[in-house]
């Protein structure tokens, strides 16, 4: 997922050339990715509003993989928007 967070990093660094809406969209994706990472970690964060993704179970792995696919699809759209903004 580092690639998705890189979208935010570069959109922010290029913010004079990139619309702020795109930077915000990249940040939102990076935040959601980080949230999933925290939910899949071995730490119990349910009390903080982050229910666990039980990656040790088949259901949890399927949930995690589905979320990753969704992030990849969204990142592809954001990457295309970023490249278009730089053209």
TrEMBL record:
Superkingdom, natural source: Bacteria
Protein name per UniProt: Uncharacterized protein
Protein species of origin: Micromonospora coerulea
């Amino acid at each position: 997922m580092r690639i998705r967070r890189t979208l935010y990093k570069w959109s922010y660094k290029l913010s004079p050339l990139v619309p702020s809406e795109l930077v915000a969209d990249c940040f939102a994706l990076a935040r959601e990715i980080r949230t999933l990472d925290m939910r899949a970690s071995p730490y119990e964060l349910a009390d903080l509003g982050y229910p666990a993704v039980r990656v040790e179970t088949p259901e949890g792995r399927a949930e995690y993989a589905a979320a990753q696919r969704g992030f990849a699809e969204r990142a592809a759209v954001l990457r295309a928007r970023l490249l278009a903004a730089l053209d």
